[in-house]
Amino acid sequence: MSEGTTVAVQDRIDEVEAPLRRVFREYGLPRIHWFAVAVAMNLVARLSALVPALVLGTAIDAVFNETGAYDLPLVPASWIPNQPEAQFWFSVSLIVAAFVLTAVCTWAQGITSDVFAHRSLHAVRVDTFRRMQELDMAFFDEQETGEAMSILNQDATNLERFLDQALKNGTRLIIMVLAIGGLLLWINWQLALVTLVAVPVMALFTWWFSRTVAPRYDAVRSSIGDLNTRLENSIGGMQLVKTANTEEFETERVEEASWNFYTTNIDVLKIAFVYRPGMRMLAGLSFATTFIVGGLWLFSGPPLFFSGELTVGNFVVFIFMTQRFIDPLAQISNIIDWTENARASGKRIFGLMDTPVRIEDDPDAVELDAVDGEVAYDDVAFSYDGEETILRDVSFDADAGDTVAYVGPTGAGKSTAVKLLMRLYDVDEGAISVDGHDIRDVTVGSLRESIGYVSQETYLFDGTVAENIRYGEFDASREEIEEAAKAAEAHEFITDLSDGYDTQVGERGARLSGGQRQRISIARTVLQDPDILILDEATSAVDTETEVLIQRSLDRLAADRTTFVIAHRLSTVTDAETILVLEDGRVVERGTHQELLEEDGLYANLWAVQAGEIDDLPDEFVDRARGDS
Ligand SMILES: Nc1ncnc2c1ncn2[C@@H]1O[C@H](COP(=O)(O)OP(=O)(O)OP(=O)(O)O)[C@@H](O)[C@H]1O
């Protein structure tokens, strides 16, 4: 038995490892030059931001108190003037220059890190969307639209915030901790140890937080997907909601999904409520201890086990620097927040990207061109879930130009049979061939290009009538579009619309009637001029008058090409070369209309009911259609 078409995206999500490393490797590395410039600018900006405090401390001791020599790290002694007044102005110039440098570099760093993040995410979003389109229909059967939208929108945005904010602040943090830590140790290593003792404690606390919060973020991401699905479903079905008077019911369902989102968020916040103030407290403690020890040192010499000298200038630098050192440390909570959120989102994005594409071109696939339209099904069997067989032993040959009709009770597998021809799903057993080529040996693109599909569920894109007819044949001229519309009996109503072919159809064609939408979709197929045509209950959604119009255009469309018709109304298929009667996934009768009437089986019974010759189907057929048998 085959594994069926089930696409378990959730399983893939669970299997994704180190998603952020992967984002960086696959999307960050190709744009690493932007990141490198951002890091360099960050480095210069952060280091130059330390200069004013350092210069101030030195100036206090050397210029004002005259208790120390004027020397600065990395500044050659020959540059430093000897006179106190000159030293004062030298200090002022350094401080101003440092401020300007910090501002310029911060600006440059902001731009480059934004460009890096947004370009990387643009690529992630487009790749994810492309991948999603490559997945077979089973993915779209199972995946809710809202969930897919939330992966493309929110999850991508979370990654963007990681690449932008988290990396920017993360590098800033590393630079600050290393630079200031080093500087403090250089100025007075003993007092520096007092300040730095907070670092390992904060690191441990952060490690605990990120481990505890990670699974909770997975739940948040999943609950927002559910909420989006709920909203998308309710808004998409607004007509039904209104006519069924179920606004309250829908509100309750949205409320439930929204509440679930709230509770998952609160689960994260419960931990964050401990962590964030905890980090602030540790930061405050570190600052206060440094201040107390340093203050006592200045008043009455080194306290406790400390030794050596601490000048006023040193103390001022320490207080400034400790503040600058502690602030980014306390910001770790935000970085962790962004990172964990992005990690959960990255798993969902890569889970989708890792979902295998099962219907794709064989490496040796050939283009299917100049198609005659011979179609053969050879012992085809298929199941959607790997368990319940939907089609079995389906075999027939259709010559080029033939019309093959599928008839039979609802759920017999008629639509499934034609979907297999378009490779929306692959057969489990047997084979389908076009012009003698197994459809798995030709490119999916060329196969689908040679098939036109008109179904009862027409889908129009938001845009004009002309754009919808041209969809897929983007080079078509206005004349060709109008010719196609005329052949589809649509030209007249289109010219009566307010803007003719330039009339906006509204979302999903909402401003048009069902029959009008149907004729636009037929015009699209006329323009496509396919070699093989599939009409899946193409006239079922319209009134009798429109049906006559549509049927006329369909007959014209079907005239010279191999056509598959699925019809409940048997009067529309009496001319078919072959009628296949499907029941429970098997072909139970086959032949022309006349032959099948003579056979006096299921088809003859269905015909008799539709022709009004008998009032009802025999009970056994009704039971079977109900699924009682
Ligand atoms: N995407 C799907 N996933 C799982 N099962 C499906 C899917 N589509 C159809 N089925 C099942 O396959 C069986 C055949 O469905 P199909 O749409 O081919 O029948 P049909 O003969 O075209 O019915 P109808 O005349 O009502 O359109 C049904 O039992 C249906 O529930």
From TrEMBL:
This protein's GO cellular component annotations are: membrane
Give its localization: Membrane
What positions does the domain ABC transporter occupy?
375-609
Its main localization is membrane
Q: Which Pfam families match?
A: ABC_membrane, ABC_tran
**Do you know which InterPro entries this protein is assigned to?**
AAA+_ATPase, ABC1_TM_dom, ABC1_TM_sf, ABC_transporter-like_ATP-bd, ABC_transporter-like_CS, P-loop_NTPase, Type_1_exporter
GO MF annotation: an example: ATP binding
Q: Which residues form the ABC transmembrane type-1 domain?
A: 36-336
Q: What is this protein called?
A: ABC transporter ATP-binding protein
Source organism per UniProt: Halosimplex rubrum
